[in-house]
Amino acid sequence: MRKFSMVIFSLILAFAFSTAAFAEPLKVTVPGELTLAQAQKVLTAAVAKAEAIKVPVNIAVVDSGGNLKAFYRMDDAFLGSIDVSIKKAVTARYFNMSTRALGEASQVGKSLYSIEVTNGGLVLFPGGVLLVDKNNVVVGAVGVSGGTVDEDENVANAAAAVLK
């Protein structure tokens, strides 16, 4: 009887593993998540705007979790702006607002004073903007650094507009 049970158990295991091999692959991308294709559109729009205003910049795109999805460093963009562009994007996503708005709310005497020292360091000047899709869902953020803060923000806004 014990031998018979072992044979049955072995057959069940073999069947279970053989059907797993023929099953559809596991989908790990959450519906509505920022796709690489969308991130590339954001980068393309940002580069076009930066080239139009003749400002070399670094452009970072993060997903809804604040994780880097895509990055582009234009020729002659400041090396020090690489980290700044990433942190602008992450900051915008972590707080669901532009870095300009968060910066204004974090001035001395305001309710978010000193928030920039949280989360491993935030960037509170303009150039980080949320990415909102056609369904009005926040799918990530874009951060731009290399020009003046107004130039950075203009490039970021042009980039974000392609998803609407």
Radius of gyration: 23 Å
Largest sheet: 4 strands, antiparallel
Helix content: 40-55%
Sequence of strands across the biggest β-sheet? 2-1-4-3
- Shape type: globular
Low-confidence stretches: none
Strand-residue proportion = 15-25%
Mean pLDDT: 90
Tally of helical runs: 5
What is the CA–CA distance across the termini? 67 Å
Number of strands: 4
Tell me the structural class. alpha+beta
Structural overview:
Helix content is 44%, strand content 15%. The longest helix has 21 residues, at 2-22. The model has no long low-confidence stretch (mean pLDDT 90). The protein is of the alpha+beta class and 164 residues long. Strands 2-1-4-3 form a four-stranded antiparallel sheet.
Topology:
Elements: H1 2-22, H2 36-52, E1 58-63, E2 68-73, H3 81-95, H4 99-105, E3 128-132, E4 138-145, H5 149-160
Antiparallel strand pairs: 1-2, 1-4, 3-4
Helix pairs in contact: 2-5
Brief summary of the model shown:
Helices cover 44% and strands 15% of the residues. It has helices at residues 2-22, 36-52, 81-95, 99-105, 149-160, and strands at 58-63, 68-73, 128-132, 138-145.
